[in-house]
Amino acid sequence: MIVVMKPKATPQQVEHVKQLVQEMGLTSHVIVGTERTVVAAVGDKRGVDKSFLENTEGVEKIVPILAPYKIASRETKTEPSEVEIRPGVRIGGKNVGVVAGPCTVESRDGLLRIAEAVKAAGAIGLRGGAFKPRTSPYSFQGLGEEGLKYLAEVREQTGLAIVTEVMAVDKVEMVAAYADVLQIGARNMQNYNLLQAVGQQGKPVMLKRGMSATLEEFLLAAEYIISQGNRNVILCERGIRTFEQYVRNTLPLAVVPELKRVSHLPVVVDPSHGTGHAYLVPAMCRAAVAAGADGLIIEVHDDPEHAVSDGAQSITPEAFAEVMGECAKIAQAIGRLL
Amino acid sequence: MIVVMKPKATPQQVEHVKQLVQEMGLTSHVIVGTERTVVAAVGDKRGVDKSFLENTEGVEKIVPILAPYKIASRETKTEPSEVEIRPGVRIGGKNVGVVAGPCTVESRDGLLRIAEAVKAAGAIGLRGGAFKPRTSPYSFQGLGEEGLKYLAEVREQTGLAIVTEVMAVDKVEMVAAYADVLQIGARNMQNYNLLQAVGQQGKPVMLKRGMSATLEEFLLAAEYIISQGNRNVILCERGIRTFEQYVRNTLPLAVVPELKRVSHLPVVVDPSHGTGHAYLVPAMCRAAVAAGADGLIIEVHDDPEHAVSDGAQSITPEAFAEVMGECAKIAQAIGRLL
Amino acid sequence: MIVVMKPKATPQQVEHVKQLVQEMGLTSHVIVGTERTVVAAVGDKRGVDKSFLENTEGVEKIVPILAPYKIASRETKTEPSEVEIRPGVRIGGKNVGVVAGPCTVESRDGLLRIAEAVKAAGAIGLRGGAFKPRTSPYSFQGLGEEGLKYLAEVREQTGLAIVTEVMAVDKVEMVAAYADVLQIGARNMQNYNLLQAVGQQGKPVMLKRGMSATLEEFLLAAEYIISQGNRNVILCERGIRTFEQYVRNTLPLAVVPELKRVSHLPVVVDPSHGTGHAYLVPAMCRAAVAAGADGLIIEVHDDPEHAVSDGAQSITPEAFAEVMGECAKIAQAIGRLL
Amino acid sequence: MIVVMKPKATPQQVEHVKQLVQEMGLTSHVIVGTERTVVAAVGDKRGVDKSFLENTEGVEKIVPILAPYKIASRETKTEPSEVEIRPGVRIGGKNVGVVAGPCTVESRDGLLRIAEAVKAAGAIGLRGGAFKPRTSPYSFQGLGEEGLKYLAEVREQTGLAIVTEVMAVDKVEMVAAYADVLQIGARNMQNYNLLQAVGQQGKPVMLKRGMSATLEEFLLAAEYIISQGNRNVILCERGIRTFEQYVRNTLPLAVVPELKRVSHLPVVVDPSHGTGHAYLVPAMCRAAVAAGADGLIIEVHDDPEHAVSDGAQSITPEAFAEVMGECAKIAQAIGRLL
Questions:
Q1: Size of interface B-D (CB pairs under 8 A)
Q2: Under CATH, what is the fold of the domain C2-63?
Q3: Among A127, B121, B231, B303, which has the minimal tally of Cβ within 10 Å of its Cβ?
Q4: Which residues of C fall within a CB distance of 8 Å from D320?
Q5: What is the pTM of this model?
Q6: Residue D193 is nearest to which of C168, C190, C309, comparing CB atoms?
Q7: Could you give the C-alpha distances from D67 to B284, C136, D62, in angstroms and in order?
Q8: pLDDT per residue over B162-215, tens digit each?
Q9: CATH of B83-333 among 3.30.200.20, 3.40.50.720, 3.90.1150.10, 3.20.20.70
Q10: Which chains lie within 8 Å of chain A at 3 or more CB pairs, if any?
Q11: What phi, psi does D336 have (nearest 5°)?
């Protein structure tokens, strides 16, 4: 941490800052510049809130140097991690893994039909919501455990890994009993009790970035899970909220190489929520693979006109098959497989 | 809802849209313009996801007309609501109510000292976190029930209403047993299970706006609580995330008159999180009152240099007393009392 | 500037950074921490682009310490500046100065009528566009010099100072011949040729913040003007672009105390563009004054239904008179005059 | 345009709105819904400011239906446009065209060296700034006409098309005399006088999106140019300003398919400004091509440590050659050529 003193800070004020730094168990180095004096505080105290220093007389600002996350970082583990979501099926290695399916589980038959279609096109996982976080209390909230059962049954018939959202601590056990991967939705990225709960069970977790979370906050949310003992965390970018209005969310794909630079965790991209419009999804699938994503998670529905949710952003199985073909060639162009 | 057809939409496509509109239980009116045909769908189906229509052949876009919230709106209740937080103490009427206190409950004595100071300066409530949602898993997470006890004890001694955060469904009962107002933090604004849980108990709820929530999403979160039977919801603006870097959050005060225009719920402002810097807090307290806020919630600490959290944005009791004096005059200038 | 080295940076890489720092004329101090080595580069080279260092082997990131602006800062001039816009009429001292008028100059009679109304309510200046930067090439672009003449005539009759926008370098002389204050619009905040041109003439300049400009960029734009010799710069906040949709722009009032903290220049607020809706303007006028603004610039029209532009955000002379009364009391509450 | 009336709007208010709509030369259709009455105003009056209607009694809001741009839209011209930047060299067809070079023209020899390198790797154009819009008045502002001469000379030797920025109306003629493509920088996207000036000369224009411009504003800026007679406009996405801090700008690649959906103009992407960090540039080059971009514009420098500007985001000729190889394969994967 660097403490930047005000231009006219007194020697007493600098001395007081040095004392406060020492109280925290850090050592201090004072550098007197031409315009400013700065106090460099050396040592690793990531959990300690140091912001109060800003409120100290003579201090202009505080500049942190160390990233606040640790076990999610590349410094702790230099090799990229792979997460096994089903026996022999991994996300994070050379293969680009695609998970696809409806927004909401609506019926067993419909789910199976879509699952078979996406599997035929090369998907390794099936997505589908049994518990749905809906912005409006009046919207359909999902089939609950019945939906989980359908998902498990379709896994038996297709071999696809099941990725489904868990929204509440008291449902973690139930969802983990059916699913292969527990998804934490964007709205719950900073629901710390939930993060701890999924960290305390054994199934892999797909953690979606909150729609206005910084990468630091995103990796600290992963750190909440990992610090409970569960290292099988997959990061998922699903778009951020910006001033843009032609999309439901702005999909910032530079996050893919950046996350892979600073963290060892695998990174997947959700171009469905990341755009909100079926007509933009295929281009963003291709771009995400080209940017180096380890996987995609895509909403597919065979009758979008009667989807109970997210109809606008669901692509058809035909469109899905086509984009999978393109993505496979792009993966190959950068030395990967899909 | 207005369905805007593409420039070259065929009559068959328009007909198909009319059918889909009717399937939803809405009636349709077709208007043929010079450049576009639009289908107006008449009726109130707020809970039904209509986005799929965008994916229908010939459709360019969907324009919603009705706000998706209902019982939180001024249409349902034209008079502003008042929320009684302690017998005889209300937020939402002519009085501007100020809640102040430390970010985190640290000790009984410290809490009492701060409580007495803010009460002397005119506060009606005491804030203080017993359960803290911390961005980092390594940060101090609060004293838990011990902190709640301190809060309740200080209420006995000062008469201040207690406002404290609840982060988890399984802690709602415990927090409600000690607190006067249950605070839902910004990170949990779309934690729907938690919203439902606080809606099912009787204590008033202070709902903080998520840092990138639209007003619609904010009011729908309030609607989640109210729809469970608890009408005592206080809305709290605490700043949004934007590109600005000189503040922790950007405090958009136009939200105050806008929320009061579209909703009957009282609106309070948190200038501490809304700026992140003690030196900006007094000006934003004054501005919030001038903008018409029904209350303020302010972080006050008598030793910010040793605050365990949010030291940078805590003001001292002296600064608090001074700004209360200014705010009282401003309240008077616009026909209110503080 | 602080150069943060990567965790495994070699001594050679640190040495190379020291050399590059010296090549720039700065002196270097190396601090070896527990997790990182940092090189502190001491000296004031604000105009030199140092970003390339980030591309140097072993470097993780660059952290600037000095603000890049200088003559606009409080360090250079500790007392707040006042700008005289007409003989004896100043913006920036104890008085809060209000400039009001139509978006566009439409006719001499209409302008005079509005001018007399706003003067009667306490305005010291008249705004009105003769050259209009319109988002669409098909919109009315203003009366040009004819509009300037009307403004000058109305000044003769009312004594109000004239504030009007200049959009092009080749019109600076013409606008300066008629106006008292040259306004640089938000879209032109980084039109550097225009900034230099208004810096080379003698009339005061009201510089509007670009809708996504950081405060650093804003003050550097002011610095462009001042560095040409014209110190009479008034900063104007008119709202920023965020994800919010219920307003045309988000008005971040914390900018007022922050700008006054880091700069000596006077700060005015434009609540008309800052909200975009007449029904939000009065509350934001009041809030801006309470936040410490040195002035307001407000769109007023006596027949908004027939305004050629910005009808939605123009308030009537009656509403203006009412809000002026409230603002006068608020000014008094904080020891100022309006 | 749809005028949504308030829930309790009176018949007189609806009637008044109908009259105002007719005054504008539009015809009105009234639809009485269950919760709202709406007035649909039919007709094409894109240049007329209709916002004032919002200020009319009984009106809740105005919803525009038609996009405000016209000649830049796909409705006016359904086939994608190609822009010829040098005899036989086009941007916008099957080929993906890459323009590369230094941020700033620094010397003839350096420029030639870089030009030969990027040409060898497949570039069709050379970028390089002679007039530089610098955020700080103290930064190097470019070599001016001398820089233009170097660019023209290097074109003679390499055959590369020259793309360079023009910042001022009075320099348009000079820059057009040397360059093949006139670039309008992001900061000048709404400098309407400059847009008109480049629209009145014959050279193609590369228009960069402003860092917080909506797509509508972007296309209206293009419309300013085209409406002056110059149809050779290339749109360039260079990143937008959001809350993200790990990048200089957030690169929203969904803009590529969206712009191509609503407009016929070619779209290129600038991954250098779009990220700000050399280590993120290659991934974003690949992603942009995969998303369907018609071209790329990339900063390349053979000695980034001594680049006078943008050193952090310049890639080396070696890195450029490598990413060109990958992009060529990706182009092929989606049926294009590079």
A1: 58
A2: Alpha-Beta Plaits (3.30.70)
A3: B303
A4: none
A5: 0.96
A6: C168
A7: 39, 11, 14
A8: 999 999 999 999 999 999 999 999 999 999 999 999 999 999 999 999 999 999
A9: 3.20.20.70
A10: B, C, D
A11: -125, 180
